[in-house]
Amino acid sequence: MILIAVAHTAVFARLAPWSSWLAGDLRNRAADSDSVATFWALPGGFVVVLVLLGLLVARAGRQGQNVPGYVGWVILAWGALAVSLIGPSGFLLAAVPAGLLIAANITARRHPRASS
Questions:
Q1: Does some domain include residue 58?
Q2: In a domain, 7, yes or no
Q3: What is the domain range of residue 103?
Q4: Alpha-helix runs per DSSP H in 14-68
Q5: Domain for residue 81, yes or no?
Q6: pLDDT of residue 70
Q7: Per-residue pLDDT of the chain (116 residues; tens, 9 = 90+)
Q8: Which residues cross the membrane (predicted)?
Q9: 32 DSSP 8-state letter
């Protein structure tokens, strides 16, 4: 998830009109539709949340904790909905972390850890 967010940022960050955003064009509605779309593709979109979720999942894994299965299913549903709305896109990559989280949850339920 972190890799997807970083790659997404790397692709769109160079397209962003940072100076006009910082000058207030988004606030005062002077930004054009491309500028607004780029804003929602970067800081206004899922990038920050996806990095945080990736960090939380990685931390849980390092601590031997299981992430609830619904996290993977919701990510998969979100990606599928986005692809159904806009067509093939980077949202297809949501299947990778979703599949890994779902598989980890199924494995954890089949092979529970022995309590100490």
A1: no
A2: yes
A3: 66-116
A4: 18-22, 33-41, 47-62
A5: yes
A6: 96
A7: 999 999 989 988 888 998 999 999 999 888 888 889 889 888 888 889 999 999 999 999 999 899 999 999 999 999 999 999 999 988 999 999 999 999 999 999 898 775 44
A8: 38-58, 70-86
A9: -
pLDDT of 114: 52
Both 42 and 74 in one domain: the answer is no
Are residues 85 and 41 both part of a single domain?
A: no
pTM of the predicted model over 0.85: no
Number of structural domains (the chain) is: 2
Q: Which long-range contacts (CB under 8 A, 24 or more apart) does 10-19 make?
A: 12/38, 12/41, 12/42, 13/42, 16/42
In a domain, 105, yes or no: yes
Q: Confirm if 5 and 51 have CB atoms less than 8 A apart.
A: yes
Task: For residue 55, give the nearest of 94, 5, 108, 9 by alpha carbon.
Answer: 5
DSSP state of 1: -
Q: Are residues 41 and 70 in the same domain?
A: no
